[in-house]
Amino acid sequence: MHADRLARVRAAMADQRVDGCLLSVGADLPWLIGYEAMPLERLTMLVVPRDGVATLVIPELEVPRVRVDDDVFRLRPWGETEDPVAIVAELLGAASRAAIGNRTWAQFLVALQRARPSTTFTTTSELIGPLREVKDPDEVAALRRAAQAVDRIAAALQAGDIPLVGRTEAEVSAELSRRILAEGHQRVNFAIVAAGEDAASPHHEPGPRVIRPGEVVLCDFGGTMLTDSGAGYCSDITRCVVTGQPTDEMAEVYAVLHEAQAAAVAAGRVGTPAEDVDAAARAIIADAGFGDRFVHRTGHGIGVEEHEDPYIVTGNRRPLVAGNAYSVEPGIYLPDRFGFRLEDIVVATDDGPEALNRADHRLVPVDA
Ligand code: ZN
Ligand code: ZN
Prior knowledge:
Helices cover about 30% and strands about 25% of the residues. The chain is α+β, with helices and mostly antiparallel strands and about 375 residues long. The protein binds zinc ion (ZN) (2 copies). One zinc ion binds near residues 220, 238 and 329.
């Protein structure tokens, strides 16, 4: 699998006239070779020449972490007194164009630019992004497992098994995080808990606010679940509950959102431009008079990274292809009052969109 991915990267390099590809921290590297670089000041970098062997330049002390696959890459460990940038520059040779991972620390790019002044650097977004955004069946299965894990947490939330009233947002967030790990993820990526007026802030940071009866509680959470390939795949779900019975206004606003989200999920057919999925949700929300209260794009791609291509946003006219995996998460936010978002991960297939998240989509009153 990794050898196949490397071959596809090389084909893209030939296509785009890229002579060398450099991958460090970020999701490209685990996707390509199953190893995730440590985000530290000691450089880890895979050097992929268009022809010839790929080399992972890695701090000597981190070599035991690597599962080497001789068909894909070899190791070039560096000792504490060596200059890893010089090693990478040497391996890169006289490349006139090099693509560097778009999450690579700037300090390494700047040092490489100094070491190789005649090389033009681009990012891997256009090189590897288009490959990563089309998931193979194993990747879809990994996303499905991760989605089912957070579905179980959402079901516990909706069943009232996660106490809410009287606890702070931060406490509930910590419980969601514990459950994300207990359900088989290795990493918690986020666990937003936003109560009452805080739910009107889409990226609210859970804090000391105590959850009261009769409030909307918006929970948006996900993590990364490792697979045998060495790469982890992300989950991401949003469900809202009400601590008690929703007011008529809450019920009305939520009904609009629910309809909009379902329409956008259904719009995700192969060949449909990504922006049309966004438009499907936006039209319904705008028709109900909340157009200016839906303040973000409808969704983002998901895979080894929690946000990646394809983005479900106005202006992205690229048609969906089978294997695209993305979130559908419209929201309606009423400042100082409450807000709602409803999010599922969806995979485009030749048989139509498959929603990976199946947790109840209704606004569930909980007595918790
Ligand atoms: Zn989310
Ligand atoms: Zn999301």
